[in-house]
Amino acid sequence: MRAAALALAFGTAGQAQTPAARSVTITVDASRSTGALPPIWRFFGADEPNYATMKDGRKLIADLGALRPGSIYFRAHNLLNTGDGTPAFKWGSTNIYTEDRNGKPIYDFTVVDRIIDTYLARGVRPYLQLGFMPQALSSAPAGTAYQHGWRPGFAYELIGGSWNAPPRDYGKWAELVYRWTRHNVDRYGADEVRHWYFEVWNEPNGPSYWTGTPEEFQRLHDTAIDAVRRALPDARVGGPDVAGSGGAFMDAFLAHVARGKNFATGKVGTPTDFLAFHAKGSPSFVDGHVRMGIANHLRGVDTGFAKIAAVPELNDKPIVIGESDPEGCAACPGAQNAYRNGTMYSSYTAASFARIWDLAAKHRVNLDGALTWAFTFEDQPWFAGYRQLATNGIDLPVLNVFRLFAKLGPDRLATTSSGEVSLATMIADGVRGTPDVAAIATRDAAGRVAILAWHYHDDDVAGPAARVRIAVAGLGGAPRAMRTWRVDATHANAFTAWKAMGSPIAPDADRYAQLARAATLTADAPQRIETRGGRATIDLTVPRQGVVLIELEPGVR
Questions:
Q1: What range(s) does the Glycosyl hydrolases family 39 N-terminal catalytic domain occupy (predicted)?
Q2: Which CATH class is domain 3-32+411-553?
Q3: Is-contact 402 67, C-beta < 8 A?
Q4: Which residues fall within 8 angstroms of residue 462, CB to CB, at 6 or more apart?
Q5: Exposed/middle/buried for 421, CB within 10 Å: 0-12, 13-18, 19+?
Q6: Which of 276, 272, 274 is nearest to 304 (CA)?
Q7: Is 396 exposed, middle or buried (0-12, 13-18, 19+ CB in 10 A)?
Q8: Helix (H, G, I), strand (E, B) or coil at 154
């Protein structure tokens, strides 16, 4: 597809004449905490593990690690696949396990070590997925192709191959997991590896990723978890990273790990330090524009939390939404996915994360993370429309929203907005009427107040900006220094700059530097904010699909 066509297919709505700005009042009480705000945004992942060691992958891993070094996690599929390490769409390999002509195992950690080394050197830790099945261990029928031939545009079901089958020998499967875990402990140290997450497989409740029965998966899971724990007794283990909330498959899994007979040990239950399920939105293309499906996304989260909360033995376990995204396939093109390059993706991210935090409070569950399944696709056309965080080494606007998340403090403050769409309405109907203009506010130990606000609507069409007045109380008597960070069509947005260049297929070095500058998140000039009776008022305009963060620093003289 030519660059001009890509720009059209994956652009944002044109700027037409729109009504006057809508007035919204946001109130923040900086003296009243409503509880902790866990940094659930710190998890990322991708199908293609080998991209992490390539030029743009290394840069992006470093950018992610810089968000909060040592606290960022990356989950990748295909880490146990047989192959030479050449990446492809929805594919990767490490050749970690092969067998000689006599069936004797051969272990080779060279490629997978390079991937993990890349993470750790850049402040990122593994959320280590134990999968998929090495070719020599697959129980798939003879003649079944191992690597799939899927490519963008093909039916999703064509990703299958013998990599998604149960092992023909569970003892060899367990020994592989044990040897790999032991190797990681020897290479990186037990103190490091016990910070990692270990989980088995991906979406075993559907035929695309698992061709065995639910009971065979339980056996796969038990034997792998036992092998990890034999190598590192206090390793953090869990799963099962089901598609959606998991239905009857998840019910059976939860019952099994809580009180079933362990396939590896014969004891009751399986060690479980965290639980994981997936939640996705469902965008569509209507009347010439993208319409997001945030309601579907949040309903999935709501159902998943309820399912876990209903199991007494497990309802206090940390939960990771192991893939939490606007839709289900990062590499899949389509008009309905034209939200990805611009500010629709970034405003959706702000609005959806806020409601995921709210849903965790509603169900009183221990939410540890919501993993964004987006990375980068190496050496693809500029702004090709994949769900990613960067294109050809240039950040997309959505990555800058994660930089804003990283500026939030640990304590959530009492906040209201006259423009907020209620959680109940958003779950039932999405944001199809009045836009969602809302905020989260936090405070840190130094007294810094951070206010994240957004202006979101499901429909990617032009609309009026929001004229927002933020009334902050509880600040004390001293003045504050205010810094404002923006992500919108004209701030921290390389896509707008690329289109203004004429959507070049291959930007030269000068234009590349211009795109890098356009993508950079920078603060407005700082301002001194006076307080009266501990109160301050801030007026600003937030364009449709824009996100803004305001920091109020104490101690200004």
A1: 25-533
A2: mainly beta
A3: yes
A4: 13, 14, 15, 16, 18, 544
A5: buried
A6: 276
A7: buried
A8: coil
Decide: 174 and 224 in contact? Cβ < 8 Å: yes
**How many C-beta atoms surround the C-beta of residue 406 within 10 A?**
16
Distance CA 468, CA 275 (A): 39
Kindly provide the b/e burial profile for residues 221-230, where b requires at least 16 CB atoms within 10 angstroms of the residue's own CB: bbbbbbbbbe
> 514: how many CB neighbours lie within 10 A of its CB?
17
Burial class (CB in 10 A: 0-12, 13-18, 19+), 183: middle
Round to whole Å and give the CA distance between 199 and 325. 20
Q: Which two tokens stand for residue 365?
A: 């569950």
Token pair for residue 222? 């038990």
Helix, strand, coil shares, percent, the chain, to 5: 30, 25, 40
Residue with tokens 């593994």: 126
Domain-wise residue ranges, the chain: 3-32+411-553, 38-405
Contact 395, 389 (CB under 8 A): yes
Place of tokens 């093909």: 154
Give me the residue label for tokens 């590499």: 331
CA distance between the termini of the chain: 56
Angle at 259 between CA 265 and CA 311, to 5 degrees: 140
Give the C-alpha separation, 264 to 267, whole Å.
8
CATH superfamily, domain 38-405, is Glycosidases (3.20.20.80)
β-pair partners for 99: 105
Apex 16 CA angle, 10 and 17, nearest 5: 160
Helices 214-231 and 170-188: crossing angle in degrees, nearest 10, is 30
Q: CB within 8 A of 17, min separation 6: which ones?
A: none
- Tens of pLDDT along the chain (557 residues) come to 333 333 323 344 434 455 688 999 999 999 999 999 999 999 999 999 999 999 999 999 999 999 999 999 999 999 999 999 999 999 999 999 999 999 999 999 999 999 999 999 999 999 999 999 999 999 999 999 999 999 999 998 899 999 999 999 999 999 999 999 999 999 999 999 999 999 999 999 999 999 999 999 999 999 999 999 999 999 999 999 999 999 999 999 999 999 999 999 999 999 999 999 999 999 999 999 999 999 999 999 999 999 999 999 999 999 999 999 999 999 998 999 999 999 999 999 999 999 999 999 999 999 999 999 999 999 999 999 999 999 999 999 999 999 999 999 999 999 999 999 999 999 999 999 999 999 999 999 999 999 999 999 999 999 999 999 999 999 988 889 999 999 999 999 999 999 999 999 999 999 999 999 999 999 999 999 999 999 999 999 999 999 999 999 997 66
> CB burial class (10 A; 0-12, 13-18, 19+) of residue 237?
buried
What secondary structure, in 3-state letters, does 393-424 show? CEECHHHHHHHHHCCCCCEEEEEEECCCCCHH
pTM of the predicted model as reported, rounded to 2 decimal places: 0.95
